[in-house]
Design goal:
alpha+beta, Nucleoside Triphosphate Pyrophosphohydrolase, about 140 residues, 7 strands
Length: about 140
């Protein structure tokens, strides 16, 4: 949960398969249209981080995870429009018996990205932060 009204807690997940991570491309009518990023979302009131992460992944990708599937990886903080964003990143392996089904209201495409190649792209959301996270893997 967040500490105050000017702070937002967001959780995201680097989902791995064959040395590549899952990236989602935002719909054209969403903030940061057409940009690529990892699955992520706000922690709702009454949720803990792992519940929120499992919910967001189910909503955005159709993938089902259990809390024990996640490993906390990296924390970041930045300011957007006068609000502090606390972003907690987890990692998990792609479930072998599941497939991705995008929520079309949020994202228009997905791709498995090589970490080095993704850091060369100009269309990655929070690219510098993401590359810092990827470098620690």
């Amino acid at each position: 949960m967040t500490a105050n009204a000017n702070e937002i807690l967001v959780v995201g997940c680097l989902i791995w398969q064959d040395d590549k991570f899952l990236a989602l491309q935002r719909q054209d009518w969403k903030p940061e249209p057409g940009m690529w990023g990892i699955p992520a979302g706000k922690v709702d009131p009454g949720e803990d981080e792992l519940q929120a992460l499992a919910r967001e992944l189910q909503e955005e990708t159709g993938l089902t995870f259990q809390p024990e599937d996640f490993v906390r990886h990296h924390d970041g903080v930045w300011e957007v429009s006068g609000r502090q964003i606390r972003f907690h990143t987890y990692r998990a392996d792609m479930p072998p018996d599941q497939s991705i089904t995008l929520e079309q209201k949020e994202h228009k495409a997905y791709a498995w990205m090589n970490p080095d190649d993704s850091c060369q792209r100009e269309d990655m959301i929070h690219k510098n932060w993401l590359c810092e996270v990827l470098a620690k893997i």
